[in-house]
Design a protein that fits this description.
This protein is mostly helical and 1155 residues long. It contains 50 helices and four strands. The protein has a two-stranded antiparallel ribbon with strand order 1-2. A two-stranded antiparallel ribbon has the order 3-4. The longest helix has 67 residues, at 1078-1144.
Length: 1155
């Protein structure tokens, strides 16, 4: 059949168009395909459609019937003969071309035919089913075993989106909205056509008059020309018919609604400005009939496309793109929606009117997310309109002069029915979205309006059940706010009357301990009470009850939570107005009222209000001063102690941290006097108890767990470096300790006496990489106080019996593995020019590796040198793939934002570990034992600024090195210094070093540690140090040779890190072909020389420690084998004696037989 029609049209190319024969050919071809088209035949179908389009251009009316029959066939689902033929590349391409070519029929059709084309596409989008017929009339297709119909709606809509068909549908929808007309067919067009025809054919005489014969002739020409024009424009005259344009716009609306169910298609349609067409339809329909039901369907289309577009923009970070704002005409949209909204409020009385009102507010809230639309809200007066209906019923119609007029009847928007309460929620949400743009006019209008006071009114309305919310009798003595918080939880009298100052009530009556320490309890400063709007301000309320008081309790709690969210986001933007209304003290009162409530709404309310206080505390010095004078630390500490909501407790700790920041000694003393330091330590200890240690697990450190119930198999921390669910409260406590304890000697001493140092070290041992960096920073800062060093050295892990120095060294090893910079199996760096990088050699045979001098080294030659150390190395490709997979898994396994975790994991914590190891004195305890070792003579490298200041005069030694008098200057190489080519080519340098190391004095340095511990005692007069056990031996810390290899690198970490920076600078200068001046060259050479000396010294020390480790292991093995042999000999002798005793019988001497 397909070959016949193609042959027919090929033969007809030269003969021209034959209307009857062509229609017969089309009818025959369509009758043969009456069940639908196959995917494999779509190429022929596309060709036939192209031929039909050409015929329609030539004579539309003659081929209208063939077009309608073709649309009937195209409405049926496509069929495939092979399994999954539609999913093949060729199948997908054929279907997309078919949809694209089918959409071109709109260009050559009149309105009546466009309606049928739209109906055809609607059937296609619904999987080949006509959505306009009843379900009972649908005839299910029975599979015959070799044909399968394509009815997957998601698959079809995806292909419509990827082809040009969807863009054409959006364009035709805009056309249907533009030609929609509810007026009767105008006669002006016909009269203008007649006059134009007369102007062409009328012939007058010289006097300008027309004779009777000329009139008759003109009439004849007029009729002929009019008939010709009517024939040419017959297919376009239907646009003036209201019924046809209404039907066309309706079918296009239904089609777009079906397509908008797919999120990607809806976002694509929104980008095509389908919203402009929807606004035009709403405008015309509302002007013709404001209660037209089609308005709600058009609003639903707007809702679908805007919602999916905003979701896609959020996922793709599309907000910064210029195309984000170019989705509709915001000015026209806001104007039309405001008119409809105004009608529903003033003249609407049906339930459907209120539903439409709420849906329009949802659309306005979505439009408000576009920053470009905010000026149109302000210019049209819609923002003021929203402010009016957000608070006018609560505060009264006479409380603000700038309320929009006229105001609707209260029964249309301010009842306590669910639909009216939903309206109020949407109004609040829309205003909040508009305020996000920080438009100055919007903020000024909001600050001057009574909306903020209305929100505080909702929050202060009592929503507690008096029998469920009551303070514990035993907690009254601990709470100096008992005069502020009544035991019944009722503050109505103090909040509703301006004569009673509930906002700044004096809160004396602190507990005896607080009085002795001078904190004086929480005393709120007396301030002048401003006029606060209350429900009684409107005298038109029924039976004297306000709108807020008439709400049921469950609804009131819901609105309180919404009001709290609104105030949290917007009150800090109008900080001055918030302070004028004494908002900070009112919020503190609300937090204390609901802090003990068991209701979920109240817990969320307290959490949001604490966030608000935190924002205000950061933004305003006045709020900070008020809280300092009012002893707000006590209030927040009370919430931390009594609340059972972890999020609220974390926010309370953050507030204490903010108050104590900046070295605020007053708040720090208050925290210490109230026992806050001990309270902060308790959650850390509880958090540690139920978790196994992870420090050293990734580096392969072997340690035995002693806790009962803990598994010996420790989870690999790199499987989830984010640490699963990280306790937000522990993070907040660490931040608070860093600001309230560190730097304050008194608080540091109390922290140590309360076993805070032990708690931090316990936390370090179980922390994931994300939290570990914060714990290390806090420990390093704490250990700057030498009084706390003894506490750290005396600590032993309850789980693994490791010392603090061991845990820090194992943190270093884990960090090396995480940064892919681990050393070789023997723990010795092999590349002295890259000591902090990966020290493992490549593993693939034949792989070339370039050294720093540019020489190519083949790994086959290195196989014998590396022995089997690289045999177990993982493939880099597999490692990267595993990392990517774990990153995707980790994104869903942490309660912290991914970007924060990534930033934390980008930090190198080895610098912090080196500082902590230096603070606890481990460098002196395990000092360099050989006088000839370069570590004895190489000073610490100073910063760039210090080196530049000294110029060519050299560098002073580090404090722990003492005065350097030997030849250790960066400008003079040591006697054992090696050249780079010697390291890579295996020169005599290593042999010299081995000989020199063989003669080293390997005495222990117990006296050094004892002297160091004694100095700590002598330099600190604290009573807390008198009873601490002091270290008198370097073996007390239990560091193994591998741990001491870490110490050798940590001791010179600053020099190694800065040396790598100078080396990188030199390489960049070489790549850029920049030649420095002589002074800069001398500076770079001296820095690199010092870097090489330090790196070589570390390498030599690590080699010595490796040899010591090998000897120790061998001695242990020999001792173990000796014990086994001794036991075996004893067993053999006992067995021999036993056997000989039996054979001898009664003989007492088993050796008489030999004699």
């Amino acid at each position: 059949v397909h070959e016949d029609i193609m042959e027919y049209f090929r033969n007809q190319v030269d003969s021209g168009i034959a209307i009857d024969e062509d229609n017969i050919a089309f009818d025959h071809w369509m009758n043969e395909n009456n069940e639908g088209f196959y995917i494999r035949d779509l190429a022929v179908v596309v060709t036939v459609i192209e031929i039909l389009i050409g015929r329609l251009y030539a004579d539309f009316s003659s081929f209208r019937g063939s077009l309608e029959k073709l649309l009937t066939l195209c409405s049926k689902p496509l069929m495939e003969l092979k399994a999954n033929e539609r999913l093949s590349v060729k199948g997908l391409e054929k279907i997309e071309i078919y949809f694209s070519k089918l959409s071109e029929l709109w260009e050559v059709s009149d309105t009546q035919t466009k309606i049928k084309i739209s109906h055809c596409f609607r059937c296609i989008a619904n999987g080949g089913r006509d959505p306009t017929i009843l379900r009972c009339e649908i005839q299910e297709w029975v599979p015959d075993g070799y044909r399968l119909k394509v009815t997957d709606k998601n698959f079809i809509q995806k292909l419509l989106r990827e082809s040009d068909a969807l863009d054409t549908i959006v364009y035709e929808f805009l056309v249907s909205a533009k030609i929609l007309n509810y007026d009767s067919p105008s006669d002006e067009v016909t009269k203008d056509s007649f006059s134009s025809i007369q102007g062409v054919v009328a012939i007058s005489d010289d006097n300008g008059e027309v004779s009777e014969e000329q009139k008759l002739s003109n009439s004849t020409h007029e009729q002929a020309n009019l008939k010709k024009i009517m024939d040419m424009t017959s297919k376009y005259m239907s646009f003036d018919t209201p019924v046809v344009t209404r039907e066309f716009s309706q079918i296009m609306l239904d089609l777009c609604l079906d397509l908008s169910e797919d999120p990607a298609s809806a976002a694509r349609m929104c980008s095509g400005k389908i919203g402009d067409g929807a606004i035009m339809i709403i405008d015309k329909d509302s002007k013709f009939d404001p209660r037209d039901h089609r308005i709600s369907f058009t609003v639903e289309l707007l809702w679908n496309v805007l919602e999916h577009f905003l979701d896609k923009a959020k996922e793709d970070n599309f907000y910064l793109s210029p195309d984000f704002e170019d989705v509709m005409n915001f000015e026209q949209a806001i104007h039309v929606l405001q008119n409809v909204l105004n009608y529903t409020l003033l003249d609407g009385f049906r339930l459907s009117d209120k539903e439409l009102r709420n849906e329009i507010l949802v659309i306005l809230a979505m439009i408000a997310k576009f920053p470009y639309s905010v000026p149109y809200f302000m210019e049209s007066g819609l923002f003021n309109f929203l402010i009016t209906y957000a608070c006018i019923e609560e505060v009264g119609r006479d409380s603000w002069f700038f309320f929009s007029k006229p105001v609707a009847n209260s029964r249309n928007f301010s009842t306590i029915s669910d639909i009216d309460l939903e309206f109020k929620k949407e109004v609040w949400f829309t205003i909040s979205e508009l305020l996000r743009a920080n438009d100055p006019d919007a903020l000024l209008c909001f600050a001057s309006s009574p909306l903020l006071s209305c929100m505080l009114m909702y929050l202060e309305q009592d929503s507690t059940e008096n029998d469920k919310l009551s303070l514990d009798k035993s907690s009254v003595d601990l709470l100096p706010l008992s005069s502020f918080l009544s035991l019944n939880g009722d503050l109505e009298a103090s909040t509703s009357s301006s004569t009673k100052s509930n906002l700044h009530t004096s809160m004396n009556g602190a507990d005896d301990e607080a009085k002795r320490n001078g904190s004086g309890g929480l005393r709120l400063k007396q301030q002048e009470q401003p006029k606060i709007l209350t429900p009684e301000a409107d005298g038109k309320k029924k039976s004297g009850k306000g709108f807020v008081e008439s709400l049921p309790l469950y609804k009131l709690r819901e609105f309180q939570l919404l009001a709290a969210t609104f105030v949290v986001h917007n009150a800090p933007k109008v900080q001055s107005e918030f302070e004028r209304q004494q908002g900070e003290s009112r919020i503190v009162a609300l937090v204390l009222r609901y802090s003990l409530s068991e209701m979920a709404e109240h817990k969320s309310l307290v959490f949001n209000l604490l966030i608000l206080l935190n924002k205000c505390l950061i933004n305003s010095l006045l709020v900070r001063s008020f809280m300092e004078e009012s002893n707000a630390v006590q209030a927040f500490l009370y919430i931390f102690q009594r609340s059972d909501n972890e999020e609220s407790r974390a926010q309370a700790v953050r507030l204490i941290s903010a108050l104590c920041s900046g070295g605020n000694r007053k708040c720090q003393r208050q925290l210490s006097a109230l026992g806050g330091i001990a309270e902060l330590i308790k959650p850390v200890r509880n958090y540690v108890q139920s978790r196994a240690p992870v420090v050293g697990a990734k580096a392969g450190v072997k340690f035995q767990l002693l806790e009962v119930g803990q598994s010996e198999e420790v989870q690999d921390p790199l499987e989830n470096p984010y640490g699963n669910d990280v306790s937000i409260m522990v993070v907040a406590i660490l931040d608070c300790l860093g600001k309230a304890v560190v730097g304050n000697r008194v608080n540091e001493t109390e922290f140590a006496e309360r076993e805070g140092v032990d708690a931090l070290l316990d936390l370090l041992e179980i922390s994931s990489f994300v939290v570990r960096i914060q714990v290390l920073r806090l420990i390093s800062d704490m250990l700057q106080n030498q009084m706390l060093v003894a506490y750290a050295n005396a600590w032993r892990s309850c789980s693994s019996l490791r010392s603090a120095a061991q845990v820090l060294c194992h943190c270093w090893l884990d960090e090396e593995v995480r940064l892919d910079s681990q050393r070789r199996e023997n723990g010795v760096i092999c590349d002295v020019w890259n000591p902090l990088g990966n020290q493992k050699w490549p593993v693939e045979d034949g792989e070339e590796r370039k050294d720093l001098d540019g020489d190519v080294v083949n790994t086959k030659a290195l196989t014998s040198a590396t022995n089997s150390n690289t045999a177990n190395m993982k493939s880099m490709t597999v490692t990267k793939l595993a990392t990517a997979i774990l990153a995707g898994r980790n994104s869903t396994q942490s309660n912290l934002p991914t970007d924060i975790c990534d930033k934390a994991l980008q930090r190198d914590t080895r610098i912090i570990i080196a500082s902590a190891l230096k603070s606890i004195g481990v460098y002196d305890m395990y000092g360099v034992r050989n006088k000839n070792n370069p570590l004895k003579s190489i000073p610490e490298m100073e910063g760039v600024g210090g080196g530049a200041a000294q110029g060519a005069g050299g560098y002073s030694g580090g404090a722990e090195e003492g005065n350097i008098k030997e030849a250790g200057s960066p400008f003079r190489r040591s006697s054992v210094m090696l050249q780079p080519h010697q390291l890579h080519e295996g020169g005599d340098g290593y042999n010299q070093d081995e000989e020199s190391f063989a003669s080293l004095d390997r005495t222990e340095t117990k006296e050094v540690a004892s002297v160091y511990s004694q100095n700590i005692v002598n330099n600190n007069n604290s009573a807390a140090m008198d009873h601490m056990p002091m270290l008198n031996s370097s073996g007390d810390l239990g560091l193994t040779p591998s741990d001491r290899q870490v110490l050798s690198m940590a001791r010179k970490y600053h020099a190694l890190r800065e040396g790598e920076w100078w080396l990188r600078l030199q390489r960049e200068l070489t790549e850029l072909q920049v030649k420095p001046i002589e002074a800069d060259l001398a500076l770079i050479d001296s820095r690199l020389e010092h870097f090489f000396d330090a790196s070589q010294a570390v390498q030599m020390e690590q080699m010595e420690l490796f040899d010591e480790d090998q000897r120790t292991k061998k001695e242990s093995e020999d001792q173990f084998m000796g014990q086994i042999i001794t036991k075996k000999n004893q067993q053999i002798k006992a067995e021999w004696l036993k056997r000989n005793g039996r054979t001898k019988g009664n003989s007492s001497n088993p050796f008489n037989k030999k004699k």
